[in-house]
Design brief:
Oligomer: heterodimer
Distance between the termini of chain A: 65 Å
CATH superfamily of the largest domain in chain A: MetI-like
Number of domains of chain A: 2
Radius of gyration of chain B: 18 Å
Structural class of chain A: mainly alpha
Order of helices and strands of chain B: HEEEHEEHEHHHHEHEHEEHH
Largest interface: A-B, 21 and 28 residues
CATH class of chain B: Alpha Beta
Helix content of chain A: 55-70%
Helix content of chain B: 25-40%
Number of helices of chain A: 20
CATH architecture of the largest domain in chain A: Orthogonal Bundle
CATH topology of the largest domain in chain A: MetI-like fold
CATH architecture of chain B: 3-Layer(aba) Sandwich
Strand order of the largest sheet of chain A: 2-1-3
Largest sheet of chain B: 6 strands, mixed
Strand order of the largest sheet of chain B: 6-7-8-3-9-10
Shape of chain B: globular
Radius of gyration of chain A: 32 Å
Chain lengths: ~450, ~260
C-alpha cells in the first residue's frame, strides 16, 4: 500500500541543463533549417548555372564581325542609261552588285599590300550574302550617289564571325565548302590591318530573321514587334473580360451550383496545357473564322484564352481580400451594390488585379506551344509593320517562337543567336515581373 | 402587457418611427429571430441589449435591410418606417439605406481622405449642388460627429490614419452626412477605449435631437447611460421592452432580471 501512494521522486531539473527531450527537439529544428538552406542553396546554384550559361553562350550574338570597305558605285554597272531613273536602277538585281564588292575588296587588299592567291570571286566569300543587298538598298535610297565611292561596313559571313569568336577553326572547316583556309588567312591579314573587327551589333536587337544561308544578319526585332502586338491583344481583351467576369462572379452572382461549376471550370482551365489552346485557336480562329495564318491577332486571341483563367483567379482572390467592412460601409451610406464595388472594392483590389494581369501577360509572353499550331513558328522574315492593322494581321513570329526556330536550325551560328534571344526574352520577363512587384508594393494598403 | 402600457403612455409625446410586427429571421435552417414586434419612437435612443447570439444585431440589420447582402438570410413579418413597409417589393434597399443610416461595430472608414469619407454619401445621393455646398455638408456632418475640431486642419489626410475613437466618430459623421432619419448603431463602442466611448456616448445623446437612434450594445451601463428605451433580447426573442429606467430597476421578466444582475449571459 505504501508503495502505491509513494510518489515517484521528481528529478530536480536545472534550467541551465537541457533535458533529453529538448535536445531532440532542438536537433530536429536544426536539421529542418539545414534542409531548407540546402534547398535554397541548390536552387540558387542552379539559377546561377543557368544565368551563367545563357550569358556566356548568348553574349556572342550581340557582337558581330564587320568589314569596312569603300565601294565605288560604278555608274556603268548600276545605271547604264545614265538618267538616274529609279525604275531602271531597280532592274539591277542584288547579283549585279556582287562585282562591285569584289572590286572593292580586291582594291583594299592591293592597297594594304596583302598577298593572297584567292580570286576576287572567292574573296567575297568572307562577306555576308547580305552585303550586296545592303549596297543595293543604299543605292535605291540615294540614286544621286551613283558614281561616287562610299564607305560601307559589311557583315562578315557567319564562318568568319565564328572564326573570330573561336567557334570555327582551321581544323573544323575541312569539309566546309563555305570557307577555305586561304580565306581565313585573308581574314587574319585584314584583322591585323584593322579593317575587319568585332563590334556591338544593334541589328540583332532591331533586325528581322534571316534565311539559313546568312545567320549573321538575323535579328529579334520583328519578332519583338510580333510579341508586342500579341500582348496588346491580350491586354485589350483579357483584362476587361477577366475583371468583369471576376467582379460578376465574386460580387453579384448568386452562390449556387451553377456558379460552383463555373468556378471549378475556371480553375481547371488554368491548368489546361497551352498546346490545347493552340489547337483550339487553329480550329476556331483560322479554320472556322478564317483569320489569317501566322497573324499576331490570332496569337493574341489564343493567348487571351490562356491568360483569362489566370487573371480571373487572381482578380477574384484580390476582390475576396477586400474586407467586407468596406462593402458594409458603402452600403450603409446608401451606395448601390455597383457603386460599392466600383467606388470602393475595385480600387482596393486594383493592385492585386494589376499584379495578376502582369504575371498573366508575362506567362503569355513566354508561351511557345500554342504558336506552333497557328503558324507563328517558322521562317518569317517580314519587315517591321507600317501600321497597327498590318502589325496585327500580317504574318509575324514572336520572341519565344523565334528562339525555338533558331535553336532547331543546323548552323551553329543560329544556336548562338537562340541564346542571345533568350537573354532578350529574359530581360523582358524580369522587367515585367519587377514592375509587378513595384506596383504591388506601392499600392498595397494595410487596414 | 406592461410594455404596451408604457408604449401607449409615450404615444402622446413622441411619434412611432419604426414599427415591427412578427418579424422572423432565418439564416438557412437557423431560426435567428422569433416573432419580434416592437415600436421604436422618433427622437429617442433605443438600446437593444442581450447576450451574444441573441439576435439583437440581426434584428438591427433588418431595419435597413443590410441582411439582404447575405444570401441565405430570409426575413418575414412586417417592418414599417413612417408607415411604409420596407420589405415591400417596390422598395429599393439603396433608397432605404439613405434614410436609415448605419454605424458598424468596427470603425470602417474608407481608405480615402477624411473629406471624401464624409462627402461620399452626399455625392452619390446628389445632396450638394456645388463644391461650396459639399464643403458645408461635410463641415456640418463633422461638427455633428463631434470631430470637426480635431480634423478640420487635415481634411485631406486619410481617414484610416485617425485613432480608433476618431475613426468611429468619423463613421458617425459619414452616416449623418446623408441626412438619415434613423441611425442604427451596432455596438459602436466595442472597439473603443473608455475615453473614446464617453465621447461617442455624448455624441449619441446629441444626435437624439435630430434622429431616432437605435443602438445595440453589450454594455448594460452604456444602455443605461445613453438610452431612453431598452429592449432585452434573449435566444431570438424580444423578452422585454420598456423605459430604460424601468427595465434596469424593475424588470418584469425573470430572464431580464437574471441578465441585468449578471446571472445569465
Amino acid at each position: 500500500m505504501t508503495d502505491a501512494i509513494q510518489k515517484p521522486e521528481k528529478k530536480k531539473s536545472s534550467l541551465l541543463q537541457l533535458d533529453a527531450r529538448t535536445r531532440t527537439r532542438n536537433a530536429a529544428e536544426k536539421r529542418f533549417k539545414a534542409y531548407g538552406m540546402i534547398a535554397i542553396a541548390f536552387g540558387l546554384l542552379m539559377l546561377s548555372i543557368l544565368v551563367f550559361n545563357i550569358v556566356t553562350r548568348g553574349a556572342g550574338a550581340y557582337q558581330q564581325t564587320f568589314v569596312a570597305l569603300e565601294v565605288e558605285l560604278l555608274a556603268g554597272k548600276l545605271d547604264k542609261k545614265g538618267n538616274r531613273d529609279l525604275d531602271d536602277i531597280k532592274k539591277i538585281s542584288t547579283f549585279g552588285y556582287t562585282p562591285l564588292l569584289s572590286n572593292a575588296l580586291e582594291a583594299k587588299i592591293i592597297e594594304l599590300g596583302i598577298e593572297t592567291d584567292l580570286k576576287a570571286k572567292k574573296m567575297v566569300g568572307i562577306l555576308s550574302k547580305s552585303a550586296a543587298a545592303q549596297v543595293r538598298d543604299y543605292v535605291l535610297n540615294n540614286p544621286n550617289k551613283i558614281g561616287e565611292t562610299i564607305g560601307f561596313e559589311f557583315l562578315a559571313s557567319s564562318r568568319v564571325d565564328g572564326y573570330l569568336k573561336g567557334r570555327v577553326s582551321r581544323d573544323s572547316i575541312g569539309n566546309d565548302k563555305n570557307i577555305s583556309p586561304a580565306q581565313l588567312d585573308l581574314v587574319d591579314a585584314l584583322k591585323a590591318e584593322g579593317c575587319l573587327a568585332k563590334r556591338f551589333n544593334m541589328s540583332f536587337i532591331t533586325g528581322s530573321d534571316a534565311s539559313d544561308a546568312r545567320p549573321e544578319a538575323a535579328g529579334m526585332g520583328t519578332s519583338m514587334i510580333g510579341s508586342f502586338f500579341m500582348m496588346l491583344v491580350v491586354l485589350v481583351l483579357a483584362l476587361p473580360i477577366g475583371v468583369a467576369a471576376s467582379i460578376y462572379l465574386e460580387e453579384f452572382a448568386p452562390k449556387n451550383w451553377i456558379t460552383d461549376i463555373i468556378e471549378v471550370n475556371i480553375s481547371n482551365l488554368a491548368a489546361v496545357p497551352s498546346i490545347v489552346f493552340g489547337i483550339l485557336g487553329l480550329a476556331v480562329f483560322i479554320n472556322y473564322m478564317h483569320l489569317p495564318n501566322s497573324a499576331p491577332l490570332v496569337g493574341g486571341l489564343v493567348l487571351t484564352l490562356m491568360t483569362l483563367p489566370t487573371i480571373i483567379i487572381s482578380t477574384r482572390a484580390s476582390l475576396k481580400a477586400v474586407p467586407p467592412s468596406i462593402r458594409d460601409a458603402a452600403l450603409g451610406v446608401g451606395a448601390s451594390k455597383m457603386q460599392s464595388v466600383f467606388h470602393h472594392v475595385l480600387p482596393l483590389a486594383a493592385p492585386g488585379i494589376l499584379t495578376g494581369t502582369i504575371i498573366g501577360l508575362a506567362q503569355a509572353l513566354g508561351e511557345t506551344a500554342p504558336l506552333l499550331l497557328i503558324g507563328m513558328v517558322g521562317f518569317i522574315a517580314s519587315n517591321p509593320p507600317d501600321s497597327i492593322a498590318t502589325g496585327l494581321l500580317s504574318p509575324n513570329s514572336a520572341m519565344p517562337a523565334q528562339i525555338y526556330e533558331w535553336a532547331k536550325r543546323a548552323d551553329p551560328a543560329f544556336y548562338e543567336r537562340a541564346w542571345g534571344g533568350i537573354i532578350i526574352l529574359l530581360v523582358f520577363l524580369v522587367t515585367i515581373n519587377t514592375i509587378a512587384v513595384i506596383l504591388r508594393r506601392r499600392f498595397e494598403r494595410r487596414w | 402587457m406592461n410594455d404596451k402600457n408604457i408604449m401607449e403612455s409615450h404615444m402622446g409625446t413622441t411619434a412611432i418611427k419604426i414599427s415591427a410586427r412578427d418579424v422572423k429571421v432565418y439564416y438557412g435552417d437557423n431560426h435567428a429571430i422569433k416573432d419580434v414586434s416592437i415600436d421604436i419612437e422618433d427622437k429617442t435612443v433605443t438600446a437593444f441589449i442581450g447576450p451574444s447570439g441573441c439576435g439583437k444585431s440581426t434584428f438591427l440589420r433588418c431595419l435597413n435591410r443590410m441582411n439582404d447582402t447575405i444570401d441565405i438570410c430570409k426575413v418575414t413579418g412586417s417592418i414599417r418606417i413612417d408607415d411604409e413597409d420596407i420589405y415591400d417589393r417596390r422598395v429599393d434597399p439603396v433608397q432605404l439605406r439613405a434614410k436609415v443610416g448605419m454605424v458598424f461595430q468596427k470603425p470602417n472608414p474608407f481608405p480615402k481622405s477624411i473629406y471624401d469619407n464624409v462627402a461620399y454619401g452626399p455625392r452619390i445621393h446628389g445632396l450638394a449642388q456645388n463644391k461650396a455646398d459639399l464643403d458645408d455638408i461635410v463641415e456640418r456632418a463633422l461638427r455633428r460627429g463631434a470631430i470637426w475640431n480635431e480634423v478640420k486642419d487635415r481634411l485631406q489626410s486619410p481617414g484610416t490614419g485617425l485613432s480608433g475613437g476618431q475613426q468611429q466618430r468619423l463613421c458617425i459623421a459619414r452616416a449623418v452626412a446623408t441626412e438619415p432619419e434613423v441611425l442604427l448603431m451596432d455596438e459602436p463602442c466595442s472597439a473603443l477605449d473608455p475615453i473614446a466611448t464617453a465621447q461617442v456616448e455624448e455624441l449619441i445623446d446629441e444626435l437624439r435631437q435630430s434622429f431616432s437612434v437605435v443602438i445595440v450594445t453589450h454594455s448594460m451601463q452604456q444602455a443605461a447611460r445613453v438610452s431612453q428605451k431598452t429592449a432585452f433580447f434573449h435566444l431570438g426573442n424580444m423578452v422585454e421592452y420598456g423605459e430604460t429606467g424601468q427595465i434596469f430597476t424593475t424588470p418584469q421578466d425573470p430572464r431580464t432580471e437574471s441578465y441585468i444582475t449578471g446571472r445569465i449571459g
